Amino acid sequence: MSDRLPQSPAPRNIPVLDLRQPAPVRPLTQPLLPAQGGLSDRLHRPLRDLRISVTDRCNFRCSYCMPKEVFDKDYPYLPQTSLLSFEEITTLARQFLAHGVRKIRLTGGEPLLRKHLERLIEQLAALRTVDGVPPDLTLTTNGSLLTRKAASLKAAGLQRVTVSLDGLDDAVFRRMNDVDFPVRDVLAGIEAAQAAGLGADGGLKVNMVVKRGTNEDQILPMARHFRGSGVPLRFIEYMDVGATNGWRMDEVLPSAQVIERLREAFPLVPLEAAAPGETAQRWGYANADGVWDPALGEVGVISSVTQAFCRDCNRARLSTEGQLYLCLFASQGHDLRSLLRGGASEAELASAIAHIWQGRGDRYSELRAQRPPDTALPAGSGQRRVEMSYIGG
Ligand SMILES: Nc1nc2c(ncn2[C@@H]2O[C@H](COP(=O)(O)OP(=O)(O)OP(=O)(O)O)[C@@H](O)[C@H]2O)c(=O)[nH]1
Ligand SMILES: C[S@@+](CC[C@H](N)C(=O)[O-])C[C@H]1O[C@@H](n2cnc3c(N)ncnc32)[C@H](O)[C@@H]1O
Ligand code: SF4
Ligand code: SF4
């Protein structure tokens, strides 16, 4: 089990959940049946999505993720020897694919800081799902290094990319990343990714975390900028993940309000989920007849706080040092690295993964949404949860 939990100083504010309006739970988008030919957890959820964190380091200090006061020069980042090697990651990924995983997302920290990441991408792109096709291979990045790396990532076999961008106004963006990084460089990274072919068929997405009172004025400018560009934009509710960001409910702008603001500016129509277990609720930009115009594209909201989507959650998370986490809000992982380094065979690894997934009952956001307002966290409340930069988001 991991002991990699946030170090001192103590969190600035202990998150006190104040859900004045208990959230509805989003309806299922996949049937509650045992996974076809794959694993199923205790809540009958299949294993489909593997998110791999390749580094716990980042060149940004977004306050909702790696606040400067905590992630300073003395922060005990993982030593090189703790990190899974590319070969170790590939060995584990092969077992996850054999269990039915179809999508692999590389994340971090900032994944593009991991040296020679292209080599890992090449290895992962050569793997096959149970259907005999390459996995849907994607990556989430802050975009700061994309101008330099987009072409080599594409050449290595990356299929698509998601760029996080919290505003278009340079001053707001610099405040959000808290390292004075200019917005024009991320926009250039997005263009480079499109030019490299990572944006085909909506493969390039942009995610914006919305913090009430901080960057909410960027919602409409961002929507205007990406409408009709072929890049789906998704607004993410600010989450109480980790224990260092001083999360407060009053800084969450519920997705319903985001959609309301968008609808005042543009006609929108709800779209079907593109895939079972999808995180985002999708809306299409409509034409004058109120019909979705695919040329105008779509926008989405990820409402983990106000509309939990645990019932569909098919995501496993592999931390930088090889801990398997079953939920973004978990306090503890399952140590696959020790198994690997202890000489476990691939069959033993596969069996361990199956055992862990079949015992999974995590549904943190859903449980929290069902609690009355102003009560303590239902799960992991006695323990500190892992940080987003460690588990990878
Ligand atoms: N609470 C919660 N948030 C999640 C989960 N999965 C992803 N997110 C958050 O949703 C945001 C978007 O995630 P992405 O990395 O773009 O992944 P995705 O939505 O699966 O991506 P696509 O494959 O492009 O649809 C990030 O901030 C994630 O932290 C989840 O299982 N639970
Ligand atoms: C942890 S980052 C890692 C990848 C990369 N550094 C990036 O920012 O895209 C993954 C995603 O998590 C999101 N994120 C981090 N902390 C969050 C929080 N407290 N609430 C909601 N989303 C968060 C980020 O905005 C980003 O889209
Ligand atoms: S959200 Fe991404 S870019 Fe921002 S601090 Fe976290 S890991 Fe870095
Ligand atoms: S809170 Fe946990 S179980 Fe629920 S959707 Fe997120 S990762 Fe999945």
Automatic annotation (TrEMBL):
It is an enzyme of class 4 (lyase). [4Fe-4S] cluster 2 binds at C310, C313, C327. GTP binds at R51, R105, T140, K205, R315, A316, R317. Its cofactor is [4Fe-4S] cluster. Belongs to the radical SAM superfamily. MoaA family. NCBIfam families: moaA. Residues 42-272 form the Radical SAM core domain. It comes from the Bacteria. S-adenosyl-L-methionine binds at Y64, G109, S164, M239. GO terms for molecular function: GTP 3',8'-cyclase activity. Binds 2 [4Fe-4S] clusters. Binds 1 [4Fe-4S] cluster coordinated with 3 cysteines and an exchangeable S-adenosyl-L-methionine and 1 [4Fe-4S] cluster coordinated with 3 cysteines and the GTP-derived substrate. It comes from Curvibacter cyanobacteriorum. Residues 1-20 are annotated as: Disordered. Gene3D superfamilies: Aldolase class I (3.20.20.70). It holds the Pfam family Radical_SAM. Monomer and homodimer. Its EC number is 4.1.99.22. [4Fe-4S] cluster 1 binds at C58, C62, C65. This is GTP 3',8-cyclase. Keywords: 4Fe-4S, GTP-binding, Iron, Iron-sulfur, Lyase, Metal-binding, Molybdenum cofactor biosynthesis, Nucleotide-binding, S-adenosyl-L-methionine. Pathway: Cofactor biosynthesis; molybdopterin biosynthesis. It catalyses: GTP + AH2 + S-adenosyl-L-methionine = (8S)-3',8-cyclo-7,8-dihydroguanosine 5'-triphosphate + 5'-deoxyadenosine + L-methionine + A + H(+). Catalyzes the cyclization of GTP to (8S)-3',8-cyclo-7,8-dihydroguanosine 5'-triphosphate. Coiled coil: none annotated.
